[in-house]
Design a protein that fits this description.
It is built from 7 helices and 4 strands. The protein is of the alpha+beta class. Helix 3 packs across helix 6.
Length: 197
């Protein structure tokens, strides 16, 4: 099988990491892969905030936990709606856990952000995917943390803490590290609906 396609098919969202740090040169290799992503009009709007300080990562996880905890109290009047009730249950489990269920004790984070302009979300998503695939090809595990993206975009305090300009939107937060193990098999994939014209 083609090496690139093999990396795509073997990529998994990893949520169990070894505590070993990811070397700076390896992270920079991932950023190099990201900068070759396609972008509208070749604008390359992405900016990267890289965090490898465990205390900072743990602090961010606690900040996110606190943000969702306060949000759940606001959601209680809406809990008669089934989808809301299910989301609140899932989030309560994360917030009340002793474990880090936001970054999964990853030794590194890569946050991709850009001004909130036309096509920048698509551009940054392409850069994100390049990082995820390149990470797998280098024996690293990764996971796109959507819950973090939501909080970073709602809370100016966290953006300031990370030196992310307030006019930037966080497009992707990637937990990164060496996996305890890679899953053997992918979850089953649905056959896509194809209209061939």
């Amino acid at each position: 099988m083609n090496e690139t396609i093999s990396s795509i098919k073997n990529r998994r969202s990893i949520r169990k990491f070894l505590p070993d740090p990811v070397p700076k040169e390896v992270i920079l290799e991932l950023i190099e892969a990201a900068k070759y992503a396609p972008s509208s009009h070749n604008r390359q709007p992405w900016n990267f905030t890289i965090i490898t300080d465990k205390a900072v990562i743990d602090g961010l996880s606690q900040d996110i936990r606190g943000w969702y905890d306060s949000l759940m109290n606001l959601s209680l009047p809406l809990s008669f709606i089934q989808e809301v009730r299910k989301s609140v249950r899932e989030m309560r489990k994360r917030v009340n856990s002793d474990q880090d269920l936001f970054f999964y004790n990853a030794p590194a984070l890569i946050i991709i952000h850009a001004p909130n302009k036309e096509f920048f979300c698509q551009d940054c998503s392409c850069a994100d995917e390049n990082i995820l695939i390149a990470a797998r090809s280098l024996g690293l595990g990764s996971c796109w943390i959507g819950f973090a993206d939501i909080v970073f975009n709602k809370g100016m305090k966290m953006k300031r803490k990370l030196h992310i300009p307030v006019n930037h939107r966080v497009m992707a937060t990637i937990a990164l590290g060496y996996p305890i193990k890679f899953p053997e098999n992918a979850l089953p994939r649905k056959e896509p609906k194809i209209d061939w014209i």
